[in-house]
């Protein structure tokens, strides 16, 4: 009878201990007397989680039991710290330097565009993991990264249209000027420049006279934007109209003016008088 009572008591004790074990799990889900997989360095005891990084008289829980954590210091000074990647980003966080990288472990990066976003000029690609370049828009048409637009010499670079005449070439009638393109005239003169054939200037693909800017060939004189023959340039406008030239006196000038002005009138009078007397 005593033996039966002992067995019954032992069974009750074992059942009670089993019940205590199953009901004394910690709030983070860690089972009794096991190391936490959420709180690094903690051991689940009957009274809750207890720090147990350094426990020479009992069970120790290493920081590394939780992914992304590591021990810093030793002995009673030991603490658990999050691992960092090379740029200082904490484990599990997005890098502020190299999007869309997320720090995994102490030196490993993984792409996660959905979580970390993309750098300027890129967007989240299908699947949400990687980033892809944003296509450029030119006149309503999409231009893929690295390709040339139909509007030469534009090229799509990181989501922006930039001039790249070396790679994309120039439209007909234009030549490369740096990485841009410029209009040229039939003789090869760049737009806005003076032609070798003075006084021509290249204006929007046409050769137009512009003696004011480009000057005249030797022996010709600029009159407005055009050039005149030197035979006209030998006599001043006053000479042609009977005025005083630069090296003549006032008297000579008056004589020239009188000759120029009155001689035709005298001739008309003589001819008229001759006709009158002949009629009579």
Structure description:
The protein has 280 residues and is of the alpha+beta class. It has 4 domains: 23-82, no CATH class; 85-134, no CATH class; 135-183, no CATH class; 187-236, no CATH class. Helix content is 26%, strand content 24%. The strands form 9 sheets. The chain has a two-stranded antiparallel ribbon. A two-stranded antiparallel ribbon has the order 3-4. The protein has a two-stranded antiparallel sheet with strand order 5-6. Residues 4-21 and 233-263 have low confidence and may be disordered.
Helix amount: 25-40%
The structural class is alpha+beta
Strand order of the largest sheet: 1-2
- Note the overall shape: rod-shaped
Number of DSSP E strands: 18
Largest sheet properties = 2 strands, antiparallel
Average pLDDT score: 78
Strand content: 15-25%
Q: Count helical runs.
A: 7
**Low-pLDDT segments, ≥5 res:** 4-21, 233-263
Intertermini distance: 191 Å
- Element order, helices and strands? HEEEEEEHEEEEEEHEEEEHEEHHH
Write the layout of secondary structure elements.
Layout: H1 2-23, E1 42-45, E2 48-51, E3 69-72, E4 79-82, E5 101-104, E6 108-111, H2 113-116, E7 122-124, E8 131-133, E9 136-138, E10 141-143, E11 154-157, E12 160-163, H3 165-168, E13 174-177, E14 180-183, E15 200-203, E16 206-209, H4 211-214, E17 220-223, E18 226-229, H5 230-233, H6 237-240, H7 250-279
Antiparallel strand pairs: 1-2, 3-4, 5-6, 7-8, 9-10, 11-12, 13-14, 15-16, 17-18
């Amino acid at each position: 009878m005593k033996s039966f009572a002992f067995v019954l008591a032992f069974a009750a004790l074992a059942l009670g201990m089993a019940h205590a074990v199953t009901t004394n799990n910690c709030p983070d889900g860690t089972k009794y007397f096991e190391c936490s997989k959420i709180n690094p360095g903690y051991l689940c005891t009957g009274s809750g989680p207890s720090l147990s990084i350094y426990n020479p008289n009992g069970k120790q829980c290493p920081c590394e039991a939780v992914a992304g954590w590591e021990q810093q210091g030793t002995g009673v000074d030991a603490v658990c710290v999050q691992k960092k990647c090379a740029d200082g980003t904490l484990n599990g966080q997005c890098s502020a330097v190299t999007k869309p990288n997320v720090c995994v472990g102490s030196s490993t990066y993984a792409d996660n565009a959905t979580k970390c976003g993309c750098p300027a000029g890129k967007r989240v690609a299908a699947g949400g993991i990687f980033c892809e370049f944003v296509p450029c828009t030119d006149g309503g048409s999409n231009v893929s990264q690295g390709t040339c637009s139909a509007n030469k010499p534009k090229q799509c670079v990181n989501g922006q249209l930039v001039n790249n005449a070396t790679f994309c070439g120039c439209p007909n009638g234009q030549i490369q000027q740096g990485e841009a393109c410029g209009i040229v005239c039939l003789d090869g003169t760049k737009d806005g420049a003076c032609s070798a054939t003075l006084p021509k200037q290249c204006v929007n693909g046409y050769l137009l006279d512009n003696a004011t800017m480009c000057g005249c060939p030797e022996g010709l004189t600029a009159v407005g934007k055009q050039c005149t023959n030197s035979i006209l340039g030998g006599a001043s406008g006053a000479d042609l109209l009977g005025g005083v030239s630069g090296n003549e006196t006032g008297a000579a000038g008056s004589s020239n003016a009188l000759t120029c002005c009155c001689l035709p009138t005298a001739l008309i009078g003589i001819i008229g008088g001759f006709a009158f007397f002949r009629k009579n």
